[in-house]
Fold these 3 entries.
Entry 1:
Amino acid sequence: MNPVLGILSPAYASVMRMRNWCYNRGVFKTYEIGIPVVSVGNLSVGGTGKTPVVEWITRYYLEQGLRTAIVSRGYKRETKGTVIVSSGEGPIVDAAQGGDEPVQLALRCNGASVVVDENRVRGAQLAKEELGAELIVLDDGFQHRRCGRNLDIVLLPCGEQLEEQRVLPLGRLREAAEGIQRADLLLVTRCSDERAADAAQQRIRKYYSGDTAGMSFSPAALRQLGSEDDQAIDTLHGKRVFGFCGIANPEEFKQTCLETGLEVAEFRTFPDHHRYTHDELRELVKAVVDSKCDVLLTTEKDAVRLADSSKMLDSVQAYYLRMEALPLVHAEILTRALNRLLRA
């Protein structure tokens, strides 16, 4: 273990405990937005499946007839301040201006407004006052306690062993595991089946005794880069696939491809939220040809970042995999929690 990280990690955990203490006792102010707010967040950094869960919850409220807005920080965007990514009819900015995940959500959640702002209170107020939002879905909001919320949902991957995790920078936790007790609902994600979800829920009882539900993620369809037409996943069966991605959990993507029956002959990873250069794309095309692969395959989030440069991949067949979130166990607990806000 790096001795410096061994010192910094408990120090960071202590700072987060003190910060939470200040919010719990009103030393730090929480600002109420005046409309229902659902926060969807993590205890750890990345890889929980937050984006498809935010999409599922947003779609749920849209189906109930509520004007819904997603408010996000817009991580890794090149802009500052408030940016309206969508007013409900698809993205009006690109990933560089709005962030890859907010643009992806704007593409998938037709009818929902999407706003990015490092000041989530300001972004939520704009969504309410200028875009007419009746409910806010706060993306990655668990630690952003300055913005008030009516429902705090925390995601935990099915295989996560909290007792083995350390706080940043030594580990992946944003705060100590005890922080999970603030959640109104714990959503166990990336569950392979109901048995795995139930086992995970039992395992975390030493940290959390509140409501829990389980959610899985399933491949929904393929799309060629630049196309809006879905294709069946078995379109690629029998073909040699060159996979690549720049996400928090690349092995999860690779495993998903293998489980859908795809032959992943080559696989290349990049940092999370990576912005691909022209040289890197040319190298990818060359690697596909040199490895005698038939197609390139990436994630939907990567496809958003590739939107302005996808023509550089025209010499090869390039696809992305669309995923969808599916409630797996105790779905009634999740919907009951969401429905409480309909009466708020």
Entry 2:
Amino acid sequence: SLRYEHGLLVQGATRGDGSVGEDVTANLRTLRAIPLRLRGDAPDVLEVRGEVIMPRAGFDAFNARALAAGEKLLANPRNGAAGSLRQLDPRVTARRPLAFFAYGIGVIEPASLLPPTHSATLQWLRTLGFPVAPEIATAQGFAGLIAYYRRIGAARDHLPYGIDGVVYKLDRYVDQQALGYVARAPRWAIAHKFPAEEQMTVLEAIDVQIGRTGAATPVARLAPVQVAGVTVTNATLHNADQIERLDVRVGDTVIVRRAGDVIPEVVRVVAERRPPHTRPWRMPTHCPVCGAQLLREKGASAWRCSGGLSCAAQRREAILHFASRRAMDIDGLGERYIEDL
């Protein structure tokens, strides 16, 4: 979110949890794509919403330089962009290959300057000096939306930045106001995701992780594989019932995808590649952390550690939850410090 007063950039903040974000003004000032002074007749107050991204070419070039210098590589463009904005030193941000696209407006004073439609607003933002994604378009009816979705999907792999879908919005603001919101979600906008990218790899082991409530979750340990620009080595198997449905075994070749382009999961087994003498996997009888018995409630899919807070894993996860942003929001109390405790 970029706030301009009388045409000058005065503040930039991250989205955060939707209510509270971080002030990253100093870092945003280093981005060439973000105007420090607006062109033309600017409103008294203008809040512009947009997204900072790291184009693929910039990401590849940055990692090539980092590799040559023996420095740490960025995991993927998405994480690279987010991490770059949160740097304590703006000079570090300035060296990152970041770009920016504006996609909307928050506050505008006087309100009479706001164009009547979303598409006209994006055109107006261009005249003020903001980059806007060149792929934006208007469409009419279901057929028009699906045609746009398919056109962007066909071009997806050739775009200079990664995307996971398209967003449809009602164009006229009076129509948006008529539909309103459900909680924070607008009724006048909807995301249409592309199918998740899938890749093949080998399942090397199945471990059990213990969560805050004692739930025992099987996790697949995989031979490293690139999925949607991220190196995946672990994937959720959800629960023992899911493993039984998929008939996943250690040594199997499996298909992996990132659900929502975020969470890695095992989709299915490539049965014809199964090596001989594999055995069906069974949930262990005792917690791998504290040794307490694992129990399954009647009719439930989850197994749970019976150790309660005597289990180190449950204590750690409980403290992490207590300190998290949606709970007590204790800044600086992260996983590493809790492990030390």
Entry 3:
Amino acid sequence: MKAYQVTEFSAPLVEQEVPTPEPLGTEVLVRVVHAGVCHSDLHIHDGYYSLAGGAKLDLLERGIRLPHTMGHELYGEVAAIGADVTGVSIGDRRLVYPWIGCGQCGACLAGNENVCIAPRSIGVFTPGAYADYCLVPNEKYLVDIGDLDPLVATPYSCSGVTVYSAISKALPIGNKEWLVIMGAGGLGLNAVAIAKALDVANVLVVDIDDSKLDAATEMGADAVLNPGTDDAVASLQEMTDGGPRAVVDTVGAESTANLGIAALLKGGRYVIVGLFGGGVTLSLPTIPLRAISVLGSYTGNLTELKALIELAKAGKVKPLPVSTRPLSEVSETLDELREGKIVGRTVLSN
């Protein structure tokens, strides 16, 4: 089968012929129909995450091996099944939950495979969706999306469930209080739609790109802020009646973290999901004195993805702007994503 692989970090992906997997036992072979392009793919492509002080987290040390097939947002058709599979049939089309763990640790047994200490995430630690086929270890990771548009639903397996989980951690937010979302990329726009679906009354989006702020307004944001060169903290606090109850940071940069944490109300919550990189310095006494919480949130669990799909099926989640391209254009799409040229989400079709 054909696969577009990282053979050298930061180099263009290489189209290669690789063996087509044969499913055994509980495994399911899925023919890739749609594959979403996610910002975290850029970090895998680079081979590192940026840490504080210019340090780097080397992904080879984290367990990624080259050549590697990326792509963790996957909607596809069941092409073959192992002998122990009974719940799906060849030809069924499903969304794939990619955040798979070892299945044996405490986190996995509690249903939180996304925070497993020995992850087997599709497209991250195992071969992913930038290929003709992808092997899924168990049918339980295949999610029926009903009549949802597959192009819209494909990113729900990462950007959707990531912000659903983060917003769940940010709640409760009173009807007169504010949720601030840092960033109006694919994650941020999905966060607006999902926050509104979860009945958050007041949502403000912060971004430095006015075109993306326009998109956030279209998705239902009640207010937007381009921090520019003004006193962004004062502006944000003024627009949110003294400060937000919660911030969901879909960027994860030093600037967004510093702004989000500084603007919080007393007792507020800052939830970070973005992986842009860098570091922040916090005066420790201010954390208890302000009674703030700083929370990390990594993707979401299978139950949360299914809950999000049910919200979307009920018509409560406004669809994200999605463009589509052939899978063969994956390298060019990653370049455009890196340059900030993509509004909403791009989904590749095979």
